Amino acid sequence: MRPRIDSGPPATLIRTSRAGATAASLPLVVNSPRLRSANARAERHPTADILRNVPFPATRLRRLRRTGALRGLVRETRLDAGDLILPLFVTHGRDRREPISTMPGVERLSIEHAVEEAAAAAALGIPAVMLFGIPAHKDEEGSGAWDDEGVVQLAIRAIKEQLPELLVIPDLCLCEYTSHGHCGILHGDTVDNDATLPLLARTAISHARAGADLIAPSDMMDGRVGAIRGALDEEGLADLPILAYSAKFASVFYGPFREAADSAPTTGDRRGYQLDPANGDEAVREVLQDVEEGADLVMVKPALPYLDVIRRVKDATRMPLVAYNVGGEYAMVKAAAAAGALDERATVLEVLTSIRRAGADAVITYHAKDAARWLSETD
User: Fold this and answer.
1) pLDDT in tens, 179-230
2) 304 and 217 share a domain?
3) Is 369 an active-site residue?
4) What is the model's pLDDT at position 40?
5) Residue 286: inside a domain, yes or no?
């Protein structure tokens, strides 16, 4: 095939010399003023020396990015509706849907509407819902948490009756049920760790009897996983798995959730028991302790600001890992999309993919239903 020569001054074809080569076997090289000028510019380019020592142009990584089919063929991280868990806020009463102002599209639901939302999630291929209860009454101990006729227990039964294959995961904490908003028994300004453990164990048994598929303690008390595991085993519930909120940070990103669950502390804050956002090593220690006490799955919360922790936890444990894409993360995307600053669909899918890429096997997210719909459209 004859080489194509750009217009310009006449060009000639010359054969390069090479020791031991015959004239007929020597490669043809286009020798034109235009090409000589381009070569001279390349020699002067600051990357010229670098390129001499790399496999380019034989290796061109862009080859596998050329078409959608090629990109899909070599995609390292997959996102599917089956990777998502939908959180639901459940309240007493009938026919109640109360919008949460800080989380557009999220509502507090009476039990019959929670069942409807769970059914919609299941129809989209989402395998699990996580329940947060808003009780009618609160007290110092948070006794509504282990009430067998409490709002979460009733919701578990209602959802499992209609959707037996859907996983139902009630959040296990006292903060929604205590009058002071802390996650355990409050003595003065301090949460009494050891006095709280029996109450958490009692709540776990109540959730289990209602039909929960996993027990999910989020309180961050030391020793809670061991206490809960022991209590479940004594009740003949040795097969019920524990999803531990193992690396739960004292984060400002929980702000919208606390409005939704009406669980903000009335005094002080939770930095005395939740993790310092600056501490990655301590987060890994927390997770490893929960694993030793019997956790079957572990969690990192929040997700986006802690992608490094997700990766470290996955590498350290090789355990099933859940990440919680929390209310503040959700609210930021919603606000940016409403302002026209971001494309909501593309942003949500990128965010969830990044959490999966960091090492999460499943993601709890308020975007779950939208994401599942978008993924089905993509397919």
Assistant:
1) 888 888 888 888 899 999 999 999 999 999 999 999 999 999 999 999 999 9
2) yes
3) no
4) 58
5) yes
Whether residue 317 is predicted with pLDDT greater than 70 in this model: the reply is: yes
Domain that holds residue 191: 82-378
Residues 62, 161, single domain; the answer is: no
pLDDT digit string, tens, across residues 78-132: 999 999 999 999 999 999 999 999 999 999 999 999 999 999 999 999 999 999 9
- Share the mean pLDDT of the chain: 88
Q: Range with the lowest mean pLDDT among 67-76, 266-275, 323-332? A: 266-275
Choose, from 138, 160, 301, 334, the residue flagged as catalytic: 301
217 occurs within a structural domain: yes
Query: Are residues 231 and 318 part of one domain?
Result: yes
Claim to verify: residue 37 and residue 171 sit in the same structural domain: no
- Residues 27, 62, single domain; the answer is yes
The three state secondary structure string of the chain is CCCCCCCCCCCEEEECCCCCCCHHHCCEEEECHHHHHHHHHHHHCCCHHHHCCCCCCCCCHHHHHCCHHHHHHCCCCCCCHHHEEEEEEEECCCCCEEECCCCCCCEEEEHHHHHHHHHHHHHCCCCEEEEEEECCCCECCCHHHHCCCCHHHHHHHHHHHHCCCCEEEEEECCCCCECCCCCCCEECCEECHHHHHHHHHHHHHHHHHHCCCCEEECCCCCCHHHHHHHHHHHCCCCCCCEEEEEEEECCHHHHHHHHHHCCCCCCCCCCCCCECCCCHHHHHHHHHHHHHHCCCEEEEECCHHHHHHHHHHHHHHCCCEEEEECHHHHHHHHHHHHCCCCCHHHHHHHHHHHHHHHCCCEEEECCHHHHHHHHHHHC
pLDDT tens sequence across 225-251? 999 999 999 999 999 999 999 999 999
Number of domains the chain is built from: 2
Are residues 260 and 135 both part of a single domain? yes
Catalytic residue among 160, 248, 314, 334: 248
pLDDT band with cut points at 50, 70 and 90 for residue 15: very low
> Is 5 part of any domain?
no
CATH code for the domain in which residue 195 is found = 3.20.20.70
Output the pLDDT for position 16.
Answer: 45
